Amino acid sequence: MNSFPPVYVLRHGETEWNLTGRLQGRFDSALTPEGIVQSRMQRDILRRHELAGFAAISSPQGRALETARIALEGVIDPIATDPALSEIGLGDWAGEDRAALIARTGACDGFALYELAPGGEGFAALRSRCERFLRGLEGPSVLITHGITSRMIRLILTGRPTAELRRIDGGQGVVFRVAGGRQERLTIGG
């Protein structure tokens, strides 16, 4: 397994499209009031940790960058952006209703849609993109990204195969600390 610096990984807060079940991919929608609260919770979590010397790197997509601005306010400055942290590409299905696509395609779940999407990026390409990004990290970092990209990054950091994507924790309003190949889920209460 590669040796990576310690990282904290955040998924953006809830968006309007998360709430209505629309797939976003490279599209964007605004944070909901709950998404703003979740981003503030992430800030409260991060403030309890020593982050001197940590870089902050966010996906340039609006929902992630807004989450980064809220979650890192008074914690880390400046916030860099890197397109490698963007969400997995959904091709022709970006903006579509998740439940309707599952019904139409017979996909076993929402995760399967990322592999089936016409013109989509797929998991193998996403993993390659995330591996390149992680190999280029120059030191400890706080990464603000998206649901599927966050899971892939944490799979790589913990030395797990892509097949475990469905099984690795996810969530909004939490922070994952990964160091030495081990992941820890950090919450307000823990």
From TrEMBL:
- Annotated coiled-coil positions are none
- A Pfam family that this protein carries is His_Phos_1
Q: What's this protein's name?
A: Histidine phosphatase family protein
Q: What is the originating organism of this protein?
A: Sulfitobacter sediminis
